[in-house]
C-alpha cells in the first residue's frame, strides 16, 4: 500500500471507531422523528411505537413486540419474564448477558447464570449445552433458559447452528432467548431473512442503536403471552415510557433504510483490515473479519501512545492494551477507513 499523506476532508477528521453505538441520526431520521405521531405508550396509545413493535415482530417472525429503552433492558426484561427466582439460565461465557450487563438477572431476579465454554468465534457446542442442563435434583437450580447471541464479537452464527442449540434445549424443556444486538449484521452477511435465523428461539432482543443507527432503543419480540409478561416486567424495572414515538420513529426509519446498508460497513471493515495488515507492526487476522469488527493487535506498550496520537488528530479508539476493537458503522466511510490506516502507519513509521 502506498501512503500519500492525510486525505483532505472538509474539516479536521472526526473518526470514532469505538463502537457502532456512536452513530449520529441522519437528517432523514431526524425528520422522521420530528414528524412522528405520538401518544402515551404506557396506555398503549402511541401509534408510532405500536407500528414499530408490529414491524419488528413481523420482521423476526414472532407474534408481538415490546419497545424498550436499551439492549440491556431488553435482555433483562426477557430473562425475568422467562425465569423465576432460583432458576438457572445457561449462557456463553463471553456473551454480553454474562459479561457486560451488570449481572442484572441475578441481582434483580435471583436467576443463576451457568456459563458455557465458547471458542474464539463465540460458538457453543450442543454437547456442552446438554451436559450443563441440571438433573431434576433438589440440590440443583432448575435449568430454565438457554441464552444465545448473534453476532458475537462480529462473528456470525448461522441458522443451522442456532437450531442445533435450540433443539438440545427444547428437548429438555428449556426456553431459548437470543440477544440479537447485531442480528441484522448476521442476516445481511448470510443473505437470509432474520426470521430464518431466529425461527427456533422463543424470544429475541433486536437493538436499534448499533449498526441500525438510531439514538436509542431495542425491541423485544416473542409470543403474545410472553410479551404481556414482559410489559409488566418493563414497568417493574422503570421502563415505562410516554410520548416515545419520537424515538420509535427513528427505529421505523432504520428498519426501512438501514438494514441492507450494513453491507457497506462489512466492506469497510475488510478494507480496513487489508490496509492495517500492510503496516509492519500491526497484526489483523483478516479471516476473522466477518461483519463490522476488526481486532487489531499492537506491539507491547504502544496502545496508549497510539490512542493519544490519534485523539489529537480527531480519531477515537476503544480500550485495550494489545488488542483493540475497531468498529465500522454508518458514520465511517471508505475515506475515514483510509485516513485511519494512514495515521496508524504514520505513527509506527
Features:
2 domains; Aspartate Aminotransferase, domain 2; 349 residues; 14 helices; two-stranded parallel sheet; 15% strand; 40% helix; Aspartate Aminotransferase, domain 1; alpha/beta; single chain
Question: Would you kindly provide a written description of the structure presented here, covering whatever features stand out?
Answer:
- Helix 12 packs parallel to helix 14 (334-348).
- By secondary structure, the chain is of the alpha/beta class.
- The chain has 2 domains: 27-256, Type I PLP-dependent aspartate aminotransferase-like (Major domain) (Aspartate Aminotransferase, domain 2, 3-Layer(aba) Sandwich), CATH 3.40.640; 261-348, Aspartate Aminotransferase, domain 1.
- The chain has 14 helices and 11 strands.
- It is globular.
- Helix content is 40%, strand content 15%.
- Helix 7 (159-171) links the parallel strand 5 and strand 6 (175-180).
- The strands form 3 sheets. It has a 7-stranded mixed sheet, with helices on both faces. Strands 1-10 form a two-stranded parallel sheet.
- The chain has helices spanning 27-34, 47-59, 71-82, 96-99, 104-109, 126-132, 159-171, 183-190, 194-197, 224-236, 245-257, 262-276, 303-311, 334-348, and strands at residues 15-16, 64-68, 87-92, 112-116, 142-149, 175-180, 203-207, 218-222, 293-297, 315-316, 323-327.
